[in-house]
Amino acid sequence: MAPPRKRARPEGSTPESAQPQLGSPKEPDDQLQNERITVPLTMTEQVPSSEAEKEARAGITAYARPDMRGFQGVVKHRYTDFLVNEISPSGLVWRLENVLGVKPKSKRDPTTDAPSMDTSSAGRAQGEGTTENAVSKPMAQATPDTNALTVSPDEQVAAPTAKDIDFKLAPADRARLESLFGKETATAIKDLYHDVLKYPNRKAKFHATIFLDPIDDKDERTDAHKIIRQLFGSRLETITGSDNSIKIGAALPGQQKGDSQPRGRIGWEELGGDFLHFTLYKENKDTMEALSFLGSKLKTGQKRFEVAGTKDRRAVTTQRISIFRQTKESLAKIAPQLNNAYIGDATYRPRGLQLGELAGNEFTITIRDCHFPGEEGMTIDQRMQLADDVVKPAACSLETEGFINYFGLQRFGTFAYSTDSIGIKILQGDLRGAIEKILSISPTAMAAARAYDANDEVRPKDFPLVSYDDRQRALAIYTWHRDGNSKKALQILPRKFGAEAAIINHLGYRKGNADPNDPSSFPTRKDYQGALVHIPRHTRTIYMHAYQSLVWNVAAAERWNRLGPKVIEGDLVLVREARLKVKDEDGDTKMEDEVDESGEPIVRPAEGDRAISGGRPGGKGKGKESDDNFERARHVTAEEAARGVFNIYDVVLPLPGWDVLYPNNEIGEFYREFMGSDRGGGLDPYNMRRKWKDASLMGNYRKVFARAKNVEYELRAYGNGPRGDEEQFVPTDVDRLGIERDAKFGFAGDGKATESEGGPTKVAVILKLQLGVSQYATMAMREIMKGGGVPYQPEYAGR
């Protein structure tokens, strides 16, 4: 059996002997200069190898409390060392519950898709991933339609089994049914279900139909629909009429093995709304990757899903998702097919989620193999005491004082090129240069692509570890530059590299069977803007946002170094928050009048008195974002600065754009200096409009300082050796529920300590904290560790 493939990000230098020989006899230089190739092959600059170098490149340089001691440790050694749970706007921390598609402990008879009638409704509801129970309420009596019982002999099927005929409801289920419908109607429904089981291929019109009197109370109608669906599955269907009456009948034979969709608007209202909300739990997987799989199985595509926020890949995350007009039953069918992911807590709501509709995230982070200043020669007990002396004040400081609210390194990309450098090229109008950046190749990856053997298994001795995907990317881009053959290059390029594929596909377009040696056969060869437009819009905006983040990080560090926590005249605060802080002489809150450029007061419409057009949430015709949803800022006056009206937690800095204010002090001047420098792209902060709309940035505001909430920490001594390093200290949601994992899911641990070799020799710090929207846990850890965090580098594929 071949050894597992090793992988690593293509970083660092490569031995000179391993560098690609672009002028070798097999690939002469003149091929690279072919006139068909309009974007030259470029090798990326030296990639920063340490975290400190990466942070400095991203403008992350200052600490809020540089005087406090830090420590070193390994972050994300296992993806289960980084647990993220989304927090709802109401403060509820979402955790995986009521999992859909997980096999119950008691196995059902596979010969029928009908629910087992000898179990209680509570047990069945739990197995189906719901805890909803119908509320017992009086219900109008039903009248069976005896005229519908006539059936021709040829429509009768084979004799039913004894189990089909001899079924009975559990006492609790019978009591629920009779309390809602009455004894006579409950018996008629039971007989109808028995008849459907006995003759499953009979047309629905030849089964009995039960009509209920009109029910004006919506809750009663909902209870009626739910109990029929829970007890009789997809064999029976309920339909609400225009007069609020309910018809109970047999489902069409073709629908009985599936899940019939609610019909029309009334049907979805009875369930609770047009949108199905559910909890997505995933391990070591991108949010979009999981949703793309669900969309393909539901035949809806990824765009039908809505999220409040995206989550890290190398982590275990739990978040809420919504989708328009899908049923719980549909999700339950495909849930078992998910790899390293689970779905739970599905419920219907009248509206979908919106981006940013969350209060933040709760993080539980395990930092392994920690070392502290002055620990040399100490016993494990002494090291644990030293660890407490270092971690306790640092963790307390996160909650009481906070940290500089930097954009984290993930904002700037994970490949050989930095996404902010692409954003600079686009903002400069150098679209060809932007494409050169995107299609650049790491020398290490290019050398690795040449060095592996034909079977792609044997790695030359002492050669850097490079992933298979990164090697294929380098080979595909090199093939494109060498031959100009987009089809050949795209066959090599892994699907995950969507931006590169979009560019090569557009620039390599050839008209029909035109001569490949004729440049006129490639009409889009120099259409660089068109190539960038074909990149998904979300990815395109990442490039410009990365540049904005770089400028903001550099400005935040500069402000802290110059002014510290002091608030001075000309600083920026949000208008919405400033209104609550401006007080009159009596100490009462005084509402400020908003004024326009001429000093005239702005009159805002009353709540609900707005004329904002838009369609249903999540659908076509969705209204444009109104001006009221955009945060506005204003300058701090000299009087307010002298009185200390605002503190550092109120101050914001702008992300560059054409619709923001800049500080009216020395920090505002710094924006002009930095953005006008070579590192800042030679741009003017007061001229950010572009002819190309996608490159025209409005800008935004971000708080300079952030404070964590509910900070807790725990120290753990553990053993040496592989078993100790793989010990799972904190149970995940799946571990907590006791769900048995298939072998394909891999090991995640059960949260229990494992036996270690030679007794405890290492120290782990477990940090739990809550952060607001768009606040980075990595930046909070950086503050308490003082740059001592060492990201774990996966050695094998799949880790």
From TrEMBL:
Sequence ranges of Polar residues compositional bias: 113-134
UniProt key word Acyltransferase: no
InterPro entries for the chain: PsdUridine_synth_cat_dom_sf, PsdUridine_synth_TruD, PsdUridine_synth_TruD_CS, PsdUridine_synth_TruD_insert, PUS7L_N, TruD_catalytic
Chain positions covered by the region annotation Disordered: 1-55, 104-151, 585-630
Keywords associated with the record: Isomerase, tRNA processing
An example Gene Ontology molecular-function term: RNA binding
GO biological process: pseudouridine synthesis; tRNA processing
Domain TRUD, residue spans: 402-707
UniProt GO cellular component terms: nucleus
Domain of life, per lineage: Eukaryota
Family in the record: Belongs to the pseudouridine synthase TruD family.
Classification via PANTHER family: PSEUDOURIDYLATE SYNTHASE PUS7L (PTHR13326:SF21), TRNA PSEUDOURIDINE SYNTHASE D (PTHR13326)
Name assigned to this protein: Putative pseudouridine synthase TruD/Pus7
Source organism of this protein record: Lineolata rhizophorae
UniProt lineage: Eukaryota, Fungi, Dikarya, Ascomycota, Pezizomycotina
